[in-house]
Design brief:
Bound molecules: S-adenosylmethionine
Number of helices: 20
Distance between the termini: 46 Å
Radius of gyration: 21 Å
Shape: globular
Oligomer: single chain
Number of strands: 11
Strand order of the largest sheet: 3-4-5-6-7-8-9-10
Strand content: 5-15%
Length: 480
Protein backbone atom coordinates (compact mmCIF):
# COMPACT_ATOMS: atom_id res chain seq x y z
CA UNK A 1 0.00 0.00 0.00
CA UNK A 2 1.38 3.40 -1.00
CA UNK A 3 2.62 5.27 2.06
CA UNK A 4 5.32 7.95 1.68
CA UNK A 5 6.02 7.91 5.42
CA UNK A 6 6.61 4.17 5.64
CA UNK A 7 10.13 2.91 6.26
CA UNK A 8 9.50 0.00 3.87
CA UNK A 9 10.63 0.58 0.27
CA UNK A 10 7.70 -1.47 -1.06
CA UNK A 11 5.35 1.14 0.44
CA UNK A 12 7.10 4.40 -0.39
CA UNK A 13 7.99 3.21 -3.92
CA UNK A 14 4.68 1.44 -4.38
CA UNK A 15 4.54 -0.28 -7.79
CA UNK A 16 0.73 0.10 -8.00
CA UNK A 17 0.96 3.83 -7.32
CA UNK A 18 3.54 4.21 -10.09
CA UNK A 19 1.33 2.35 -12.57
CA UNK A 20 -1.69 4.47 -11.55
CA UNK A 21 0.45 7.61 -11.97
CA UNK A 22 1.41 6.58 -15.49
CA UNK A 23 -2.26 5.99 -16.38
CA UNK A 24 -3.23 9.35 -14.86
CA UNK A 25 -0.42 11.10 -16.77
CA UNK A 26 -1.39 9.47 -20.07
CA UNK A 27 -5.05 10.40 -19.56
CA UNK A 28 -4.20 14.05 -18.85
CA UNK A 29 -1.26 14.72 -21.14
CA UNK A 30 -3.41 16.56 -23.70
CA UNK A 31 -5.26 18.56 -21.08
CA UNK A 32 -3.32 21.74 -21.84
CA UNK A 33 -5.33 23.77 -19.33
CA UNK A 34 -4.19 21.46 -16.56
CA UNK A 35 -0.61 21.44 -17.89
CA UNK A 36 -0.57 25.23 -17.90
CA UNK A 37 -2.02 25.40 -14.37
CA UNK A 38 0.69 23.02 -13.16
CA UNK A 39 3.38 25.17 -14.74
CA UNK A 40 1.97 28.26 -13.04
CA UNK A 41 1.90 26.36 -9.77
CA UNK A 42 5.57 25.39 -10.21
CA UNK A 43 6.71 28.94 -10.99
CA UNK A 44 8.72 30.66 -8.20
CA UNK A 45 6.72 33.20 -6.15
CA UNK A 46 8.16 36.29 -4.45
CA UNK A 47 8.16 36.02 -0.68
CA UNK A 48 9.72 38.90 1.25
CA UNK A 49 13.32 39.18 0.07
CA UNK A 50 13.33 35.63 -1.16
CA UNK A 51 11.27 33.26 -3.24
CA UNK A 52 9.32 30.14 -2.59
CA UNK A 53 8.28 27.37 -4.87
CA UNK A 54 5.62 24.80 -4.20
CA UNK A 55 7.16 22.02 -6.27
CA UNK A 56 4.93 19.38 -7.83
CA UNK A 57 3.80 15.95 -6.74
CA UNK A 58 4.93 12.87 -8.66
CA UNK A 59 1.49 12.67 -10.27
CA UNK A 60 1.47 16.31 -11.34
CA UNK A 61 5.04 16.22 -12.67
CA UNK A 62 4.29 12.97 -14.54
CA UNK A 63 1.52 14.77 -16.45
CA UNK A 64 4.08 17.35 -17.57
CA UNK A 65 6.57 14.67 -18.55
CA UNK A 66 3.90 12.91 -20.65
CA UNK A 67 2.76 16.13 -22.39
CA UNK A 68 4.07 16.36 -25.97
CA UNK A 69 2.82 19.82 -26.87
CA UNK A 70 5.85 21.81 -28.18
CA UNK A 71 4.68 25.13 -26.73
CA UNK A 72 4.11 23.61 -23.32
CA UNK A 73 7.49 21.88 -23.45
CA UNK A 74 9.10 25.26 -24.14
CA UNK A 75 7.27 26.72 -21.18
CA UNK A 76 8.51 23.84 -19.01
CA UNK A 77 12.07 24.75 -19.98
CA UNK A 78 11.45 28.44 -19.22
CA UNK A 79 9.95 27.82 -15.79
CA UNK A 80 12.69 25.29 -14.96
CA UNK A 81 15.30 27.92 -15.77
CA UNK A 82 13.43 30.53 -13.71
CA UNK A 83 13.51 28.18 -10.72
CA UNK A 84 17.19 27.43 -11.14
CA UNK A 85 18.02 31.13 -11.34
CA UNK A 86 15.78 32.00 -8.39
CA UNK A 87 17.41 29.50 -6.03
CA UNK A 88 20.89 28.95 -7.42
CA UNK A 89 21.53 32.08 -9.49
CA UNK A 90 23.82 31.69 -12.52
CA UNK A 91 26.39 29.71 -10.52
CA UNK A 92 27.45 26.20 -11.53
CA UNK A 93 29.35 24.18 -8.96
CA UNK A 94 32.27 22.09 -10.24
CA UNK A 95 33.54 18.75 -8.97
CA UNK A 96 35.45 15.67 -10.10
CA UNK A 97 35.00 11.96 -9.40
CA UNK A 98 37.89 10.06 -7.84
CA UNK A 99 37.86 6.31 -8.42
CA UNK A 100 39.50 4.50 -5.51
CA UNK A 101 38.94 0.87 -6.44
CA UNK A 102 37.17 -1.21 -9.07
CA UNK A 103 37.12 -4.41 -7.03
CA UNK A 104 33.46 -5.43 -6.81
CA UNK A 105 31.53 -8.52 -5.79
CA UNK A 106 28.23 -7.46 -7.37
CA UNK A 107 26.85 -8.71 -10.65
CA UNK A 108 25.30 -5.46 -12.00
CA UNK A 109 24.60 -6.15 -15.69
CA UNK A 110 25.25 -2.54 -16.82
CA UNK A 111 28.54 -1.98 -14.98
CA UNK A 112 31.98 -3.06 -16.26
CA UNK A 113 33.12 -3.60 -12.66
CA UNK A 114 30.75 -6.56 -12.30
CA UNK A 115 32.41 -9.53 -10.69
CA UNK A 116 32.28 -11.81 -13.74
CA UNK A 117 34.15 -9.34 -15.97
CA UNK A 118 37.59 -10.91 -16.24
CA UNK A 119 38.79 -8.68 -19.07
CA UNK A 120 39.50 -5.62 -16.92
CA UNK A 121 42.43 -5.37 -14.53
CA UNK A 122 41.36 -4.91 -10.91
CA UNK A 123 43.02 -2.01 -9.18
CA UNK A 124 42.83 -0.35 -5.80
CA UNK A 125 44.75 2.81 -4.97
CA UNK A 126 47.20 2.79 -2.08
CA UNK A 127 47.21 5.83 0.22
CA UNK A 128 50.34 7.06 -1.56
CA UNK A 129 48.60 6.72 -4.92
CA UNK A 130 45.58 8.59 -3.54
CA UNK A 131 47.87 11.44 -2.50
CA UNK A 132 49.29 11.58 -6.02
CA UNK A 133 45.78 11.61 -7.56
CA UNK A 134 44.68 14.37 -5.17
CA UNK A 135 47.74 16.46 -6.02
CA UNK A 136 46.90 16.07 -9.71
CA UNK A 137 43.29 17.11 -8.99
CA UNK A 138 44.39 20.08 -6.89
CA UNK A 139 46.75 21.12 -9.68
CA UNK A 140 43.75 21.25 -12.00
CA UNK A 141 41.96 23.50 -9.49
CA UNK A 142 39.43 21.12 -7.94
CA UNK A 143 38.19 21.67 -4.39
CA UNK A 144 35.32 19.17 -4.33
CA UNK A 145 35.47 15.45 -5.08
CA UNK A 146 33.07 12.55 -5.30
CA UNK A 147 34.80 9.31 -4.35
CA UNK A 148 33.72 6.15 -6.12
CA UNK A 149 34.37 2.52 -5.33
CA UNK A 150 32.96 -0.89 -6.12
CA UNK A 151 31.48 -2.97 -3.30
CA UNK A 152 33.96 -5.44 -1.86
CA UNK A 153 34.17 -5.90 1.90
CA UNK A 154 37.55 -7.63 1.61
CA UNK A 155 39.33 -5.31 -0.81
CA UNK A 156 37.49 -2.04 -0.11
CA UNK A 157 36.22 -2.32 3.47
CA UNK A 158 34.78 0.74 5.18
CA UNK A 159 38.11 1.27 6.99
CA UNK A 160 39.79 1.69 3.60
CA UNK A 161 37.22 4.29 2.54
CA UNK A 162 37.59 6.16 5.86
CA UNK A 163 41.39 6.14 5.65
CA UNK A 164 41.18 7.38 2.05
CA UNK A 165 38.92 10.28 3.09
CA UNK A 166 41.46 11.28 5.76
CA UNK A 167 44.24 11.09 3.20
CA UNK A 168 42.32 13.26 0.73
CA UNK A 169 41.64 15.97 3.32
CA UNK A 170 45.28 15.86 4.50
CA UNK A 171 46.81 16.82 1.14
CA UNK A 172 47.58 20.54 0.75
CA UNK A 173 49.64 20.99 -2.37
CA UNK A 174 50.72 24.58 -3.11
CA UNK A 175 47.53 26.61 -2.56
CA UNK A 176 45.32 23.59 -3.10
CA UNK A 177 43.06 21.64 -0.85
CA UNK A 178 40.02 19.41 -1.12
CA UNK A 179 37.31 20.92 1.04
CA UNK A 180 34.40 18.61 0.42
CA UNK A 181 34.49 14.88 -0.21
CA UNK A 182 31.18 13.43 -1.37
CA UNK A 183 30.92 9.67 -1.24
CA UNK A 184 29.34 7.27 -3.73
CA UNK A 185 29.68 3.79 -2.25
CA UNK A 186 27.30 0.88 -1.87
CA UNK A 187 24.39 0.88 0.57
CA UNK A 188 25.60 0.19 4.09
CA UNK A 189 24.60 0.16 7.76
CA UNK A 190 23.63 3.02 10.10
CA UNK A 191 26.88 2.40 12.03
CA UNK A 192 28.93 2.77 8.85
CA UNK A 193 27.05 5.96 7.90
CA UNK A 194 27.84 7.38 11.35
CA UNK A 195 31.53 6.74 10.68
CA UNK A 196 31.33 8.39 7.26
CA UNK A 197 29.66 11.39 8.87
CA UNK A 198 32.41 11.55 11.50
CA UNK A 199 35.01 11.44 8.72
CA UNK A 200 33.56 14.72 7.43
CA UNK A 201 31.88 13.69 4.21
CA UNK A 202 29.65 16.06 2.30
CA UNK A 203 26.83 14.35 0.41
CA UNK A 204 26.25 10.60 0.48
CA UNK A 205 25.33 9.66 -3.07
CA UNK A 206 23.70 6.41 -4.08
CA UNK A 207 21.98 5.85 -7.38
CA UNK A 208 18.89 3.72 -7.30
CA UNK A 209 19.70 2.52 -10.85
CA UNK A 210 16.04 1.52 -11.36
CA UNK A 211 12.97 1.92 -9.17
CA UNK A 212 11.23 -1.04 -10.82
CA UNK A 213 11.79 -3.83 -8.31
CA UNK A 214 11.34 -6.68 -10.78
CA UNK A 215 13.78 -5.10 -13.21
CA UNK A 216 16.15 -4.23 -10.36
CA UNK A 217 16.34 -7.86 -9.30
CA UNK A 218 17.09 -8.96 -12.88
CA UNK A 219 19.77 -6.28 -13.34
CA UNK A 220 21.46 -7.17 -10.03
CA UNK A 221 21.39 -10.96 -10.18
CA UNK A 222 24.15 -11.58 -7.63
CA UNK A 223 25.95 -9.91 -4.73
CA UNK A 224 24.72 -7.77 -1.82
CA UNK A 225 23.30 -5.16 -4.18
CA UNK A 226 20.66 -7.74 -5.22
CA UNK A 227 18.73 -6.77 -2.07
CA UNK A 228 16.37 -4.14 -3.50
CA UNK A 229 14.86 -3.08 -0.16
CA UNK A 230 18.23 -2.71 1.56
CA UNK A 231 19.45 -0.57 -1.35
CA UNK A 232 16.28 1.55 -1.61
CA UNK A 233 16.12 2.20 2.13
CA UNK A 234 19.81 3.24 2.30
CA UNK A 235 19.10 6.98 2.40
CA UNK A 236 16.92 6.54 5.49
CA UNK A 237 19.77 4.73 7.22
CA UNK A 238 22.24 7.41 6.08
CA UNK A 239 19.99 10.07 7.61
CA UNK A 240 19.62 8.04 10.80
CA UNK A 241 23.41 7.96 10.87
CA UNK A 242 23.46 11.77 10.84
CA UNK A 243 24.15 12.42 7.15
CA UNK A 244 21.57 15.00 6.18
CA UNK A 245 22.77 15.66 2.63
CA UNK A 246 21.91 12.70 0.45
CA UNK A 247 22.03 12.45 -3.35
CA UNK A 248 19.55 10.43 -5.41
CA UNK A 249 19.82 9.30 -9.02
CA UNK A 250 18.45 6.91 -11.60
CA UNK A 251 20.59 5.27 -14.26
CA UNK A 252 18.42 6.28 -17.21
CA UNK A 253 18.25 3.73 -20.00
CA UNK A 254 17.69 0.62 -17.89
CA UNK A 255 13.89 0.84 -17.58
CA UNK A 256 11.09 3.00 -19.05
CA UNK A 257 11.87 6.61 -18.19
CA UNK A 258 8.33 7.53 -17.10
CA UNK A 259 8.39 4.78 -14.49
CA UNK A 260 11.81 5.87 -13.22
CA UNK A 261 10.76 9.50 -13.07
CA UNK A 262 7.70 8.77 -10.91
CA UNK A 263 9.79 6.50 -8.64
CA UNK A 264 12.52 9.11 -8.24
CA UNK A 265 10.00 11.79 -7.21
CA UNK A 266 8.31 9.39 -4.81
CA UNK A 267 11.69 8.74 -3.22
CA UNK A 268 12.21 12.51 -2.79
CA UNK A 269 8.69 12.84 -1.33
CA UNK A 270 9.43 9.97 1.04
CA UNK A 271 12.58 11.68 2.36
CA UNK A 272 10.62 14.90 2.92
CA UNK A 273 7.77 13.07 4.61
CA UNK A 274 9.78 10.76 6.83
CA UNK A 275 13.07 12.60 7.40
CA UNK A 276 11.88 16.21 7.09
CA UNK A 277 14.34 17.08 4.33
CA UNK A 278 14.42 16.21 0.65
CA UNK A 279 17.42 15.11 -1.41
CA UNK A 280 20.36 17.53 -1.44
CA UNK A 281 21.08 16.49 -5.02
CA UNK A 282 19.57 14.50 -7.85
CA UNK A 283 21.86 13.11 -10.56
CA UNK A 284 20.74 12.20 -14.05
CA UNK A 285 23.23 9.66 -15.45
CA UNK A 286 22.49 7.68 -18.64
CA UNK A 287 23.96 4.22 -19.30
CA UNK A 288 27.10 4.51 -21.40
CA UNK A 289 29.21 2.01 -23.33
CA UNK A 290 31.99 0.41 -21.31
CA UNK A 291 34.10 -2.75 -21.31
CA UNK A 292 31.65 -5.65 -21.66
CA UNK A 293 28.69 -3.22 -21.66
CA UNK A 294 26.49 -2.23 -24.61
CA UNK A 295 23.72 0.23 -23.63
CA UNK A 296 21.54 -1.07 -26.50
CA UNK A 297 21.17 -4.34 -24.60
CA UNK A 298 18.79 -2.59 -22.22
CA UNK A 299 16.32 -1.40 -24.87
CA UNK A 300 15.35 1.74 -22.99
CA UNK A 301 17.80 4.35 -24.22
CA UNK A 302 16.35 7.85 -24.28
CA UNK A 303 16.97 10.53 -26.90
CA UNK A 304 18.46 13.89 -25.92
CA UNK A 305 15.12 15.75 -26.19
CA UNK A 306 13.43 13.44 -23.69
CA UNK A 307 16.47 13.59 -21.45
CA UNK A 308 16.22 17.40 -21.37
CA UNK A 309 12.51 17.20 -20.61
CA UNK A 310 13.18 14.80 -17.72
CA UNK A 311 15.71 17.23 -16.22
CA UNK A 312 13.34 20.18 -16.58
CA UNK A 313 10.48 18.24 -14.96
CA UNK A 314 12.71 17.19 -12.03
CA UNK A 315 13.61 20.86 -11.52
CA UNK A 316 9.89 21.81 -11.57
CA UNK A 317 8.97 19.10 -9.08
CA UNK A 318 11.91 19.37 -6.64
CA UNK A 319 12.84 23.07 -6.87
CA UNK A 320 15.42 23.24 -4.08
CA UNK A 321 17.53 20.24 -4.97
CA UNK A 322 20.97 20.52 -6.55
CA UNK A 323 20.98 18.80 -9.94
CA UNK A 324 24.08 17.09 -11.30
CA UNK A 325 25.21 16.12 -14.78
CA UNK A 326 28.48 14.31 -15.36
CA UNK A 327 30.93 13.91 -18.24
CA UNK A 328 28.92 10.90 -19.39
CA UNK A 329 27.26 13.57 -21.54
CA UNK A 330 28.87 15.57 -24.35
CA UNK A 331 29.31 19.34 -24.51
CA UNK A 332 26.13 20.00 -26.51
CA UNK A 333 23.89 17.99 -24.17
CA UNK A 334 25.49 19.58 -21.10
CA UNK A 335 25.00 23.06 -22.56
CA UNK A 336 21.28 22.48 -23.05
CA UNK A 337 20.87 20.80 -19.65
CA UNK A 338 22.47 23.82 -17.95
CA UNK A 339 19.54 25.91 -19.14
CA UNK A 340 16.84 23.69 -17.63
CA UNK A 341 17.92 23.35 -14.03
CA UNK A 342 21.33 21.69 -13.66
CA UNK A 343 23.39 23.32 -10.89
CA UNK A 344 26.50 21.10 -10.63
CA UNK A 345 28.76 19.50 -13.25
CA UNK A 346 31.94 17.49 -13.23
CA UNK A 347 34.90 18.67 -15.27
CA UNK A 348 38.21 17.20 -16.45
CA UNK A 349 37.01 13.80 -15.17
CA UNK A 350 38.84 10.50 -15.41
CA UNK A 351 36.65 7.51 -14.61
CA UNK A 352 39.46 5.00 -14.25
CA UNK A 353 41.28 3.97 -11.08
CA UNK A 354 44.42 6.11 -10.97
CA UNK A 355 43.48 8.06 -14.10
CA UNK A 356 44.51 11.54 -12.99
CA UNK A 357 48.21 10.73 -12.67
CA UNK A 358 48.40 9.32 -16.22
CA UNK A 359 49.29 11.69 -19.06
CA UNK A 360 47.22 9.75 -21.58
CA UNK A 361 43.63 8.97 -20.59
CA UNK A 362 43.67 5.28 -19.55
CA UNK A 363 40.80 3.06 -20.69
CA UNK A 364 41.54 -0.28 -19.05
CA UNK A 365 39.74 0.40 -15.76
CA UNK A 366 37.33 3.07 -17.03
CA UNK A 367 33.84 2.75 -15.57
CA UNK A 368 32.21 4.34 -18.60
CA UNK A 369 33.19 6.25 -21.74
CA UNK A 370 33.69 9.93 -20.97
CA UNK A 371 31.91 11.98 -23.65
CA UNK A 372 33.11 15.40 -22.50
CA UNK A 373 36.88 15.07 -22.51
CA UNK A 374 37.74 18.76 -22.13
CA UNK A 375 40.14 19.91 -19.44
CA UNK A 376 38.78 21.65 -16.35
CA UNK A 377 40.14 24.96 -17.64
CA UNK A 378 38.30 24.51 -20.94
CA UNK A 379 35.09 23.74 -19.04
CA UNK A 380 35.56 26.82 -16.81
CA UNK A 381 36.14 29.03 -19.86
CA UNK A 382 33.11 27.59 -21.65
CA UNK A 383 30.84 28.04 -18.63
CA UNK A 384 31.73 31.72 -18.44
CA UNK A 385 31.20 32.13 -22.18
CA UNK A 386 27.72 30.68 -21.67
CA UNK A 387 27.02 33.18 -18.85
CA UNK A 388 27.43 30.78 -15.89
CA UNK A 389 29.72 31.51 -12.94
CA UNK A 390 31.98 28.48 -12.34
CA UNK A 391 31.96 27.99 -8.57
CA UNK A 392 34.37 25.97 -6.44
CA UNK A 393 32.50 26.89 -3.29
CA UNK A 394 32.17 24.41 -0.43
CA UNK A 395 31.21 26.94 2.25
CA UNK A 396 27.73 25.73 3.21
CA UNK A 397 28.84 22.35 4.29
CA UNK A 398 31.81 23.72 6.23
CA UNK A 399 29.62 26.33 7.93
CA UNK A 400 27.13 23.63 8.93
CA UNK A 401 24.52 24.78 6.42
CA UNK A 402 23.41 21.27 5.48
CA UNK A 403 20.04 19.52 5.35
CA UNK A 404 17.09 21.84 6.00
CA UNK A 405 19.43 24.72 6.98
CA UNK A 406 20.71 24.72 3.41
CA UNK A 407 17.15 24.59 2.09
CA UNK A 408 16.16 27.63 4.18
CA UNK A 409 19.13 29.59 2.85
CA UNK A 410 17.88 28.72 -0.63
CA UNK A 411 14.41 30.06 0.17
CA UNK A 412 15.43 33.17 2.11
CA UNK A 413 16.81 35.20 -0.77
CA UNK A 414 20.23 35.36 0.91
CA UNK A 415 21.85 33.53 -1.98
CA UNK A 416 22.95 36.75 -3.66
CA UNK A 417 24.56 37.92 -0.39
CA UNK A 418 26.13 34.58 0.44
CA UNK A 419 26.55 32.04 -2.36
CA UNK A 420 27.16 34.62 -5.06
CA UNK A 421 30.18 36.29 -3.34
CA UNK A 422 31.48 32.85 -2.29
CA UNK A 423 31.33 31.70 -5.90
CA UNK A 424 33.22 34.81 -7.04
CA UNK A 425 35.88 34.42 -4.35
CA UNK A 426 36.48 30.75 -5.17
CA UNK A 427 36.57 31.61 -8.86
CA UNK A 428 39.28 34.17 -8.02
CA UNK A 429 41.31 31.45 -6.29
CA UNK A 430 40.98 29.36 -9.44
CA UNK A 431 41.94 32.24 -11.73
CA UNK A 432 44.98 33.15 -9.64
CA UNK A 433 46.30 29.64 -9.08
CA UNK A 434 45.31 27.52 -12.08
CA UNK A 435 43.73 29.38 -15.00
CA UNK A 436 45.22 29.86 -18.46
CA UNK A 437 45.64 33.55 -19.47
CA UNK A 438 42.45 33.71 -21.60
CA UNK A 439 40.40 32.13 -18.85
CA UNK A 440 41.86 34.54 -16.32
CA UNK A 441 41.00 37.55 -18.48
CA UNK A 442 37.43 36.40 -19.12
CA UNK A 443 37.08 35.46 -15.44
CA UNK A 444 38.01 38.87 -14.09
CA UNK A 445 35.65 40.55 -16.56
CA UNK A 446 32.88 38.32 -15.26
CA UNK A 447 33.79 38.93 -11.61
CA UNK A 448 33.64 42.73 -12.11
CA UNK A 449 30.13 42.45 -13.56
CA UNK A 450 28.89 39.91 -11.03
CA UNK A 451 30.18 41.76 -7.95
CA UNK A 452 27.73 44.57 -8.76
CA UNK A 453 24.82 42.14 -8.37
CA UNK A 454 25.49 41.66 -4.63
CA UNK A 455 22.65 43.63 -2.99
CA UNK A 456 24.21 44.22 0.44
CA UNK A 457 26.81 46.98 0.04
CA UNK A 458 28.89 45.81 2.95
CA UNK A 459 29.01 42.24 1.62
CA UNK A 460 29.95 43.59 -1.80
CA UNK A 461 32.77 45.66 -0.25
CA UNK A 462 34.16 42.72 1.76
CA UNK A 463 33.99 40.41 -1.27
CA UNK A 464 35.88 42.98 -3.34
CA UNK A 465 38.53 43.38 -0.63
CA UNK A 466 38.98 39.63 -0.34
CA UNK A 467 39.33 39.29 -4.09
CA UNK A 468 41.99 42.02 -4.11
CA UNK A 469 43.78 40.29 -1.21
CA UNK A 470 43.89 37.06 -3.21
CA UNK A 471 45.28 38.85 -6.23
CA UNK A 472 48.00 40.59 -4.21
CA UNK A 473 49.15 37.83 -1.91
CA UNK A 474 48.75 34.17 -1.23
CA UNK A 475 45.85 34.46 1.23
CA UNK A 476 43.12 32.01 0.29
CA UNK A 477 39.84 30.46 1.42
CA UNK A 478 37.68 33.49 2.17
CA UNK A 479 34.01 32.74 2.56
CA UNK A 480 30.73 33.98 3.94
N1 LIG B 1 29.44 0.71 -6.15
C1 LIG B 1 28.52 1.71 -5.73
C2 LIG B 1 27.11 1.21 -5.89
O1 LIG B 1 26.93 0.07 -6.18
O2 LIG B 1 26.17 1.99 -5.77
C3 LIG B 1 28.62 3.04 -6.42
C4 LIG B 1 29.78 3.37 -7.25
S1 LIG B 1 29.50 3.15 -8.97
C5 LIG B 1 31.20 3.33 -9.26
C6 LIG B 1 28.68 4.64 -9.44
C7 LIG B 1 27.54 4.56 -10.44
O3 LIG B 1 28.02 4.41 -11.75
C8 LIG B 1 26.57 3.44 -10.31
O4 LIG B 1 25.65 3.69 -9.28
C9 LIG B 1 25.92 3.41 -11.68
O5 LIG B 1 24.71 4.13 -11.72
C10 LIG B 1 26.92 4.11 -12.58
N2 LIG B 1 27.32 3.24 -13.71
C11 LIG B 1 27.68 1.95 -13.66
N3 LIG B 1 27.88 1.48 -14.91
C12 LIG B 1 27.64 2.51 -15.76
C13 LIG B 1 27.65 2.63 -17.19
N4 LIG B 1 27.95 1.61 -17.99
N5 LIG B 1 27.33 3.83 -17.71
C14 LIG B 1 27.03 4.87 -16.93
N6 LIG B 1 27.00 4.81 -15.59
C15 LIG B 1 27.29 3.64 -15.00
Amino acid sequence: MYNPKSSNADDFIDHGEILDTLIYAEANKNNLKLVDELLEKARPKKNGNGCTCSGLTHREASVLLACEDPEMINKMYQVAEEIKLAFYGNRIVLFAPLYLSNYCINGCLYCPYHTKNKSIPRKKLTQEEIKAEVIALQDMGHKRLAIEAGEDPVNNPLEYILESIDTIYSVHHKNGDIRRVNVNIAATTVEAYKKLKAAGIGTYILFQETYNKKRYLELHPTGPKHDYNYHTEAMDRAMQGGIDDVGLGVLFGLEGYKYEFAGLLMHAEHLEASQGVGPHTISVPRVKPADDINPDDFNNSIPDEIFTKIAACIRLAVPYTGMIISTRENEAVRKKMLTVGISQISGGSRTSVGGYTETIRPHDTEQFDVSDQRTLDEVVYWLMQCGHIPSFCTACYRAGRTGDRFMSLCKSGQILNCCHPNALMTLTEYLEDYAKPDTKKLGYEMIERELLKIPNENVQKIARENIEAMKNNNKRDFRF
